[in-house]
Design a protein that fits this description.
With 246 residues, the protein is an alpha/beta fold. It has 2 domains: 13-73, no CATH class; 77-243, Metalloproteases ("zincins"), catalytic domain (Zincin-like), CATH 3.30.2010.10. The chain has 7 helices and 10 strands. It has helices at residues 46-52, 54-73, 124-154, 190-202, 211-220, 224-232, 240-243, and strands spanning 13-17, 24-27, 33-38, 83-86, 91-99, 106-109, 114-119, 160-164, 171-173, 178-182. The strands form 3 sheets. Strands 4-5-7-6 form a 4-stranded mixed sheet, with helices on one face. The chain is globular, with a radius of gyration of 20 Å.
Length: 246
């Protein structure tokens, strides 16, 4: 969606969002520019917003194009990690790959800093699937208990927490008090994870983004505006091999 103009304006798409409170830019994995627009905001604000952020768009679009070319050009084996940094947990894992005649792929925890993967060295898809399963388990072992601690600290209770593989959301909260958390949160800095927790816990009181809701968020997280913007761009913390997992 790109109206005619006398000067260059990057091609972009528009997505209306009931959750958005302000205009937001997003560069997708295929380097498409997406403008997220609050549902009730007039479309007349979109193009001036894009023009105002042309430098930011070009910079981040170029970066995404480089990542896209890297994903397409490198041999598949290069996507497998030697080190895994889980910022939210303050953990760094070193990955040891051991070739095996077995058709099965297995992951074994060697110690608190090392894991060993055994299987066919050429079956990268199985390896990525197994690594994804391991990451989900790390998330299940850590994120719900951390959410519970924060819940008790700020006095906002929830029913249960589940770990999921959402593609477009870091988390959500149902009307029954079930908080869904994206397992990839373990790659994010702790401050962003805690903000996401507060964001979802506040939905146990307000299932909307009303003024009352944001007032409650601000009460427990005064710097929420800045953190909300950082969270919108937190995909940068996710390694390519995770993004490209089957």
């Amino acid at each position: 969606m790109n109206p005619q103009s006398d000067f260059f304006i990057p091609e972009y798409t528009v997505r209306k969002s009931t959750r958005a409170r302000y205009l937001r830019l997003r560069i997708t994995q295929d380097a498409t520019v997406e403008v997220v627009v609050p549902k009730r905001m007039s479309m007349k604000h979109v193009q001036p917003f894009v023009i105002q952020h042309i430098d930011w768009i070009e910079k981040h679009k170029s970066r995404q194009l480089q990542n896209k070319n890297l994903r397409e050009a490198l041999p598949e084996g290069k996507h497998l990690p030697e080190t895994i940094h889980l910022r939210a947990l303050d953990e760094t894992w070193h990955v040891d790959f051991k070739a095996s005649a077995s058709s099965q792929c297995r992951i074994k925890r060697v110690n608190d800093h090392n894991i060993r993967i055994t299987g066919s060295p050429d079956d990268h898809e199985k390896t990525l699937i197994k690594l994804q399963q391991w990451l989900k388990q790390r998330a299940k072992d850590t994120l719900p208990s951390r959410l519970k601690q924060l819940s008790e600290k700020i006095g906002l209770s929830f029913n249960k927490a589940i770990i999921r593989s959402q593609r477009t959301r870091w988390g959500s909260c149902s009307s029954h008090g079930t908080v869904s958390l994206n397992y990839k949160l373990i790659f994010l800095p702790p401050v962003l994870v805690d903000y996401l927790f507060i964001h979802e816990l506040c939905h146990t009181r307000h299932m909307n983004h009303s003024r009352q809701y944001w007032a409650l968020v601000k009460k427990h997280c005064p710097d929420y505006r800045s953190l909300d913007k950082q969270l919108a761009n937190a995909g940068q913390f996710i390694p390519l091999w995770v993004t490209n997992s089957p």
